[in-house]
Amino acid sequence: MSTLVSTDAKSQGAFVPTTALAKSVDFDEEMMHVTLTDGRRISAPIIWFPLLVKATPDQRSKCEIGGGGTSLHWPALDEDLSVAGLLAGADWQGM
Q1: Please, is 94 exposed, middle or buried when counting C-beta atoms within 10 Å of its C-beta (0-12, 13-18, 19+)?
Q2: How many angstroms separate the CA atoms of 85 and 91, rounded?
């Protein structure tokens, strides 16, 4: 395994995940569940997301998956989440 870091300009672009991409989003009473294209399922308490907690079930169900699966957007709520952020977990010190 090489530990060399390429200085090639082509390798300096933004990282685009190839497996951690959202396929679907659903909710139960307390949790948001995001199914990824590779079969994994991320779950997080909706209480972490104040706009989603206040939303109706119908509003929560109207999620748009964007960026090829890298982002979640609820237009009516003006809420945006990233799959990378969900995978990283909560930043309890920032809450």
Answers
A1: exposed
A2: 10
CA distance 85 to 66: 14
Can you read off the two tokens belonging to residue 95? 């809450």
- Give, in degrees to the nearest 5, the angle at Cα 45 between 43 and 51: 115
Both tokens of 8, joined, read 């090639």
* Euclidean distance between CA atoms 63 and 73, whole angstroms: 6
| In the chain, beta strands by DSSP E | 22-27, 31-36, 41-45, 64-66, 71-74, 79-82
Which pTM does this prediction carry?
Answer: 0.75
Reported as a single tens digit per residue, the pLDDT across 76-94 is 999 999 999 999 886 554 5
